[in-house]
Design a protein that fits this description.
The protein is an all-alpha fold. The chain has two helices and no strands. It is about 45% helix and about 0% strand.
């Protein structure tokens, strides 16, 4: 009997809270496309893919000073040792 009363109490308390929730449709019904719309979309996709093929390849080196350098860059982070000086 206690279980029945607890279930009824919970049902009565959740009723107002449930009524206040907004009605959100997470999966709206999508309208089907007409054959003309499908053909237009396929034509746009085909034109887009063809335009991507026309883009030239990126250059290998983006270093503007590459021709000026004569030696290879040294690894950063190696401190030069100072001999004869003391730090207090």
């Amino acid at each position: 009997m206690k279980v029945l009363r607890a279930a009824a109490l919970i049902a009565l308390l959740t009723g107002p809270a449930y009524a206040q929730m907004p009605n959100i449709n997470l999966m709206p019904e999508t309208a089907s496309k007409t054959p003309e719309q499908r053909e237009a979309e396929e034509a746009r996709d085909k034109a887009y893919k063809e335009s991507l093929k026309k883009i030239p390849d990126a250059k290998v080196s983006a270093d503007p000073w590459g021709n000026v350098r004569t030696d290879t860059p040294k690894a950063a982070g190696k401190p030069k040792s100072k001999t004869g000086s003391t730090v207090n």
